[in-house]
Amino acid sequence: MFLNHHAVAQPPPRDLLEALSARRVVDTAIGGTDTSNQPQVHLIAEVKRASPSKGLLAPHFDPVALARIYAMHGATAISVLTEPHFFLGSLQHLRAIKEVVSIPVLRKDFIVDEYQVYEARAWGADAILLICAILNDEQLKRLLHVAHDQGMHCLVEVHSAEEAQRAVAAGAQIIGVNSRDLVTFRMNP
Q: Vertex 157, ends 156 and 158: CA angle to 5°?
């Protein structure tokens, strides 16, 4: 398989789970406080040009500059929209960002097929987003397995307690909660 060859040729993925679990060191000499014993916040910053609910968000969009700013200001990882129709994303954005930051880069798209997992890895993704609401249990389990075989972690997006249970049962290690209804695009508090 052509994509699998390119996926294997990539450097090893940066570990998203490790990055999200790491303790952050705070420089108390420049006015920070020692937070070594406090809960830590890890931010996955998103590079997104447009959204179905808000339309064009950034007419003068420079994904690489934005990613550099996120990384410089402490983002743990960067989520890159690659879906071209609704979000105006691209795989080229993912590759360009991967080349300029040292933190994990996640492909955010509507991933429903193994091909897209290999494609993500071939373009340099360290991790992928899997949306529980658009996958059945068998698909979710299979895509988690394929990503794991490629050395990638998955952020599994859930919208309810039921979906969270499905994600855990499928073997998800990283779960994100999305409060937006995917049908109406309304926020659920």
A: 115
d(CA 84, CA 125): 17
Is 183 part of any domain?
Answer: no
**Model confidence, pTM:** 0.81
Distance CA 110, CA 117 (A): 11
Q: CA-CA-CA-CA torsion for 30, 32, 37, 39, nearest 10 degrees? A: -140
Q: 34 Cβ partners below 8 Å, 6+ apart?
A: 26, 28
| pLDDT tens sequence across 60-119 | 889 999 999 999 999 999 999 999 999 989 999 999 999 999 999 999 999 999 999 999
Radius of gyration of the chain (CA): 17
Residue 184 lies in a domain: no
> For residue 27, what are the contacts with CB-CB under 8 A and spacing of at least 6?
none
What's the one-letter identity of residue 185? F
**Residues with Cβ within 8 Å of residue 48, at least 6 apart in sequence:** 57, 58, 81, 87, 89, 108
CATH number assigned to the domain comprising residue 129: 3.20.20.70
- The parent domain of residue 85 ranges over 2-177
Please report the pLDDT score of residue 11 as a whole number: 77
